[in-house]
């Protein structure tokens, strides 16, 4: 996708950018990452960014576990930009550096907290098998309840959308930043 210049945005694009900057992501939001791609289809982008704002800032899932689930998603999809953005957020939210390093390396985090291990099992099972076992579901349901389970599924769906968007359009990490994953990509 070609980069857009804020000075030449179409009215619908300018409206979308203003809405994103007025929301919880803040005034500093740039046209990088998935939002730069979403700007090319502003009606879709408006819906996607509103869902994303809710998934990131409005659910009952604690930020540490939400960001942990986002990292598992970014690693699964090898979404470099998503990882680049969310790894520091996850660390700030309380995910231990060793846990982040394990996820980045594609390992099951051995020393993660019990709730993180439950979320990891849920996310990886869902992505690998396209569903989760009753046992895995029950473990996570004990943490989040009914509403939280819906929200967790939504977080995973939204961030899979973001990862696919980043991967399809090959959105790069900022210049000079290393790629988080080294295995070959298509």
Distance between the termini: 18 Å
CATH superfamily of the largest domain: AhpD-like
Q: Note the beta-strand portion.
A: under 5%
Percent of residues in helical segments? 55-70%
**Biggest pleated sheet:** none
Give the helix tally. 8
What would CATH call the class of the largest domain?
Answer: Mainly Alpha
The name CATH uses for the topology of the largest domain is AhpD-like
The radius of gyration over CA amounts to: 17 Å
Give the topology string: H per helix, E per strand: HHHHHHHH
Poorly predicted tracts of residues: none
Mean pLDDT: 94
**Number of structurally distinct domains:** 2
Q: Structural class of the helices, strands and pairings?
A: mainly alpha
Number of DSSP-assigned strands: 0
What is the CATH-assigned architecture of the largest domain? Up-down Bundle
* Gross geometry: globular
